[in-house]
Queue: 4 jobs
Job 1
Amino acid sequence: MAELSTIARPYAEALFGVARADSAGLTAWAELVAEMAQAASHPEVRSAVADPQFDSAQRVELFASTLKTPLSIDARNFLALLVENGRLLLLPEIASEFLWLKNRHQGEADAEIVSAFPLADAQVAELVAGLEKKFGVKIKPVVSVDASLIGGVRVAVGDQVLDTSVRAQLDRMRDALVA
């Protein structure tokens, strides 16, 4: 996984530079890149763009035809670059890197909050306030429930994970006893 993000990062950074200079704005580009990533994840699209009977221009047109959003010249050029370098199928990783760059630029971060039990809105708000204080950015939470945690929460902000779940504590105790 780290290898794919290493390959995707320069493409995301280049696209981010184009998006910052574009009057359409970062949000519009983020939505377009997310749409491209979703299309690139579809098995039939992956198969079609990998078909050797198509040349590069045909692959760009084929892929562009799967999108709802009309493509600007810059977006088409980006797709052509990905096709020429055999990186079109990396769009999900590129989109992830692009979103990270956009969030960092805007002083925001996505937080994946996994709880053993459903959290009330007030609990989420309190947790988000603490995370914003700790990380110094505006947190956009995505909350889910995983009963296997037994109790507590696991929070992932970027590449940092805070795991206060009972499952993690039991795992640490087991590792200490085995060692």
Job 2
Amino acid sequence: MKIVIINGSARKGNTLTAIEAFMKGALEKNEIEVIEPDRLHIAPCKGCETCQCYKGCVDSDDTNPTIDKIAAADMILFATPVYWWGMSAQLKLIIDKCYCRGLQLKNKKVGVIIVGGSPIDSIQYELICKQFDCMASYLSWDMLFQKSYYANARDELAKNVNAMKELEEIGKKL
């Protein structure tokens, strides 16, 4: 299976640690590509809807090659830190730009990893999951998993042996 991981974090911290644990399990049987929005030149969606008349976004930046990779994937893993009770702007930027090829994202297998600095019972995780639930319903996604993890210090998630095992196992099952 071809898996595209969208890393919504610009830092090399707990979200990347979660991605790496997932990849450790998934790499054996799957082809994986990680998209790092903070390293791309992508303008925000302008809502011009010109893309609906063409085969993609009219912006001359990294949008179309990035969305091509996402559309070609069998599975999309969205990974994000929590920023102000929501997903990061880096991840939201990519999701917004997917509008130009939204129908090509129908029926994808999807996973979500959320890492935040508040305990897991905080509403921030629920809010992000609900947003992904809405997208999944609209695009007929097969939501394989939504996992939330608490990690405050930069290397805290790596020390959570149970979380690392869980993420690796999720990857292995694919």
Job 3
Amino acid sequence: MEDLGWLGFLALGLIAFGGAVLGGLSGFGAGLIVTPFLVPVVGVKGVVPVMAVAMTFGNLSRAWVYRDQIRPDLILRVLLPSLPGVLVGGLIYDVLPRAPLAALIGSFLLISIPLRRWLDKRKVVPTPIAVIGISFLFGLVAGALPGGGVIVVPLLLGLGLAGGALVGTDAVIGAAVNIAKTLLYGRLDLIDGPLLIGGVLVGLCMIPGAYVARFLIARIHLRIHTALIEVMVAFSGVSFLWSAFT
């Protein structure tokens, strides 16, 4: 990280800001967009812990922006089953070597695009069993990979959330999950001082993006920014697969 230079940190800051804007518009995409640009700086093994720290700041800022629309009753319903999944996912992340990990992250990013579209077309029936199962799956994916909003957002939609209530409630859940990830990665010695500082710097750059997203959320067509996110996520997936096989 010390070899990156101030221009490199400036570029990462702008990317983090842009990712936060897109994530604030839809509830997903921020971490997925920023992730591949961190790999040359922190390596494949360090990118998920760094993003756990960064997304804690990003989610807390979104939660603050939409604090008056958050649904606390739904937070616990999703969060409690997701935390055991985070533990399992974090342990899986710890034992995976670099190349398979890069291939797994890249494959997930590419799969997340058709998965999100498929989930959007299916009405999630929020039965107690469905909420527990999907929440645990969300925690499992979030614990091992960057991003998990593609799984939890359809569940929140099925629970009746939309607009600012969706983004704000998802942000609180995301912040809690990323705090749990950060603590877990610390216990597993996956986060050291430089990675922690890098995560904080990226996270701080994401904070103003939440405010810009709130300004834009009523002024931009949903399909436009969703298509942009999908292009960036696809690029991210290809870059990870390239890293894995080269």
Job 4
Amino acid sequence: MAKVNIKSEKITPFGGIYYASKAFYALSLDKVINGTLGVRSSTYNGYQWDEIMSAMSDVFLCGGDCVEDVNRSECHLRESPEVRISTSHTIGRAIKEHSHEDMEYKSSSGNVFRFNTNPRLNDLLMKLNMKMGLFKSGQTVNVDFDHVFVKTEKADATYSYKQAYGY
């Protein structure tokens, strides 16, 4: 017969995310992020880049599908001793700090395509992959990306060749 022990009075539906948070810091991903993107805030209570990215990934790993979902799950996510969770407004402002101008490509048929290569965030992505051992130094890797069109009725959505508004 299995024996059950109650380890804490606090039960959270997102307890599994604490293991992901521990791995995040055990792999020193916070140091890679802050080292690549620099210091975001010099005040004690300001959020650094690693905390912003950790909060974003926690939300999506817990089933959220937009940054605002941090507001629904923050009471549970704050139970983790390793994590400081910022508000969705702070995350949104931080994301905008790394915005980069879109590039435009006009095809021979006259269609205009916009895309964004954001070299600073691409550099961070490669460094994180190296740190996690997914890529090795000196290894040649072809990195491909695919565009995903997300239909939405939000005010800043644009009309697409898919005959719908979205991103």
